[in-house]
Specification:
This protein is an alpha/beta fold. The chain has a domain of 96 residues. Helix content is 42%, strand content 18%. It is built from three helices and seven strands, in the order βββααβββαβ. The strands form two sheets. A five-stranded mixed beta sheet has the order 3-7-4-6-5, with helices on one face. It has a two-stranded antiparallel ribbon with strand order 1-2. Helix 1 packs antiparallel against helix 2.
């Protein structure tokens, strides 16, 4: 699961960090792929759905109660699966199109909060921040719009700051 924090990297004209945005989700991309986690969640979900179907064939209260409980469990697994698949897609896309970027921040409300003079990639010491927002030229590319949608998926369930601009910060290890 991604850790949730209030880190949003916004660079000022002088290169200092300003903590102006809260990240709804932070994803650390390491050598461990999220693909295995997604596959494991899918197998558990498949098992849950099969058990739910079995309980629904019973017409007693206990069977219906068990089916209802499993539906709740399956819903949680589905959310985890959705997040793991989104992380897998993000990992693949970022590594393919931005192999040198150390960090990626999504700006999902256009460039209104991002000054025009701010370049897409900002260097601060040994850390690069790649700004991804809907006005980027690659947002019109299929992989770019998919990347934005995958990042937004991670912030859907819990958004600590619905007025903030940064939905995800992705850091490479």
């Amino acid at each position: 699961m991604p850790s949730r924090d209030q880190r949003g990297n916004v660079h000022g004209r002088d290169g200092r960090f300003a903590q102006q945005h809260r990240a709804a989700a932070e994803v650390t991309l390491s050598r461990t792929s999220h693909r295995e986690q997604a596959a494991e969640q899918a197998e558990w979900l498949k098992s849950d759905l099969s058990r739910i179907a079995g309980y629904l064939h019973g017409d007693d209260d206990a069977s219906l109660a068990a089916a209802n409980e499993l539906v709740g469990q399956a819903t949680v697994r589905l959310r985890r699966l959705r997040a793991d698949v989104a992380r897998t897609n993000i990992e693949h896309t970022v590594r393919k199109h931005f192999p040198d970027a150390a960090e990626l921040t999504l700006i999902n409300r256009g460039s209104s909060s991002r000054p025009d003079w701010e370049p897409d990639i900002v260097r601060d010491g040994d850390r690069d921040t790649l700004w991804v927002h809907t006005s980027n030229t690659f947002a019109d590319e299929p992989w770019g719009s998919n990347l934005i949608m995958d990042l937004l998926q991670l912030g859907d369930d819990e958004d600590p700051d619905p007025t903030g601009d940064a939905d995800a910060v992705i850091t490479f290890q």
